[in-house]
Specification:
4 helices; 30% helix
Length: 164
């Protein structure tokens, strides 16, 4: 028996709470106590299921028992029964500690946008500015026309773009 395995006293308390096997026929190859010790080893140490030692049974069988009991509510039922038993015996102190500390993450840690864009984009490099025929207005994103530009109305009704 390893250090974290169930003792005989603890097994005597736990065994009546376990569901009874309903299948008739051949007895299981791996005793339920060893599989439960394997589940407890995995939960206690946090190792991957494949690293559960072989002495607890095949890791797949240990994982299967864990998932079956998790899905059908057996684990919750056993925990509730053990807690109520310990409460009746006065082994649990139900003290509640409330901490009013507030820890806020920075807005960027929460996924907030930066300057209205999800990420910085590089400015595209293009050919020299092209002029829209008939209006003498540079294309969007192009540098302004230098030199002798005629004072003609622009194609935009934007208040800052008007006569030049």
């Amino acid at each position: 028996m390893d250090r974290g395995d169930l003792t005989d006293e603890r097994w005597a308390v736990l065994e009546p709470l376990l569901p009874k096997g309903m299948r008739a026929g051949r007895p299981p190859v791996w005793p339920r106590r060893r599989l439960i010790d394997g589940i407890r080893f995995r939960v206690r140490t946090g190792v991957p299921w494949r690293d559960v030692p072989v002495e607890y049974g095949p890791w797949g069988r240990v994982h299967d028992l864990f998932r079956r009991w998790q899905r059908n509510g057996t684990r919750h039922h056993i925990l509730t029964r053990l807690q109520s038993r310990a409460d009746v015996q006065g082994e649990i102190t139900w003290d509640l500690s409330v901490d009013s500390t507030v820890c806020r993450a920075h807005q960027h840690a929460a996924g907030a946008r930066k300057q209205g864009a999800c990420r910085k984009s590089r400015r595209a490099v293009s050919s020299p500015s092209r002029v829209i025929p008939g209006w003498d207005v540079p294309a969007a994103g192009s540098p302004p026309i230098r030199g002798n530009a005629a004072c003609t109305p622009t194609a935009s009704a934007h208040p800052r773009i008007g006569w030049r």
